[in-house]
Amino acid sequence: MISAKIITIGDEILIGQIVDTNSTFISKQLINIGIEVSEILSISDEKESILNALNNSLNKFDIVITTGGLGPTNDDITKEVFCEFFNDKLVHNQDLLLHIENLFKKFANNPINDLNRAQSLVPSQSKLIENKFGTAAGMAMKKGNTLFISLPGVPYEMKSMITSSVVPLLSKEFKCPVILKKTLMTYGVGESTIAKQLKVFEEKLAANFKLAYLPNLGRVRLRISCKGSDRQQLENQLDLYISELYNILGKIIIGFESVNSIESEIGKILAKSNKTLSTAESFTGGLISSRISSVPGASAYFKGSVVAYDTLVKKDLLKLDASLINHYSVVSSQVANEMANNVKKLLNSDYAISTTGNAGPSKGDSKKDVGLLYISIATPNEIKSYEFNFGNNREKNIKKSVNKALELLFNELLNEL
């Protein structure tokens, strides 16, 4: 097995100022070429922290990829630390300087300064990795049995360098096994229930295959992965296992992650049947419509949304009857039904989703219990309301309700169209 470690450098990660998305991207690219990431580490941009991380990784991993600390400011010290670690020195690279100067001529409004020119100083032993979109070149250097690769932390620069340069370099340098994985999306059934259904399936899995459960608020992803030397053989066996999972779990499987998201499957059904959809959201605040409209081509079937968070908006824009609200409160199946029905009329759609409830932590305009939530689905023929209580956590209530609303609509569409 070829092992890799990712080190992200920067105080901004450690204090929670930014989220480390670089490691996620790099991991996905490496696994695609058969390299498994064994460890991910975030460290401060202090000299000792970086040196310790490099020393602790030497000869323990085949590949170490660092991101961050290659900029022009005083706190960007990765190149200097690399020189100390490799017993090397910084030298001027004329081609890199020309690249930096050209970038400034094309894209910068301010003139180039000495700090920018200093970006052309690189360790003398390093193999440079081209950065088409920035001034910080990447570096590849070998010590002992470990290949160290340093990349800038700016995500769009790093991503381009990984795909255009690093992946081809590693594919050439290392003989990697074939690693395949597929992730199925399921909705509406909990992790423990699915695990019970798949007990026998898991017991029969070949030793080089692995099933993982990834639950998340109303949905469970099932990732089945395998490793070997014969790609075709692995693909054939993986397809057989996938078919078996479909036979066992049936309709709760929506499709494959990133290929068959539930919102894209909803869109396919609506587009194929020439039907349209609208939403009226209260406590979900437009998150359902955001998921639906994120699908390319959604304009063919998605009419729009009314985010009626305030009670007055429900009355004035959605034309809800004040007596209905006064009698049942805004958190009720009656109000949820009326919201779905009225947005359906307002935007002239065939289907509609509505949400209303007390997501917490306070009760808002209703005295109903925190956690009490209603989702309604309006179809061309009827309106169905569903009551839920997902607990006291606001974030959980909102996210789980978004997933549940999409699941309810999807099942309704499957039954009707």
CATH architectural type of the largest domain: 3-Layer(aba) Sandwich
Biggest sheet details? 6 strands, mixed
CATH fold-level name of the largest domain: Molybdenum Cofactor Biosythetic Enzyme, Chain A
Q: How many domains, in number, for the residues?
A: 3
Strand elements, count: 17
Notes on the structure:
By secondary structure, the protein is an alpha/beta fold. The chain folds into three domains: 3-173, MoaB/Mog-like domain (Molybdenum Cofactor Biosythetic Enzyme, Chain A), CATH 3.40.980; 178-256, 2-Layer Sandwich (Alpha-Beta Plaits); 262-416, CinA-like (Maf protein, Alpha-Beta Complex), CATH 3.90.950.20. Helices cover 41% and strands 25% of the residues. The protein has 16 helices and 17 strands. It has helices at 11-14, 22-32, 47-57, 78-85, 94-107, 114-117, 155-173, 191-197, 199-204, 231-249, 262-273, 287-293, 311-316, 322-328, 333-346, 394-416; strands at residues 3-9, 36-43, 63-67, 90-92, 121-123, 127-129, 138-143, 146-151, 178-187, 209-216, 219-228, 253-256, 277-281, 302-307, 351-357, 372-378, 383-389. The chain has a six-stranded mixed sheet with strand order 2-1-3-8-7-6, with helices on both faces. A hairpin with a 2-residue loop joins strand 10 (209-216) and strand 11 (219-228). It is globular.
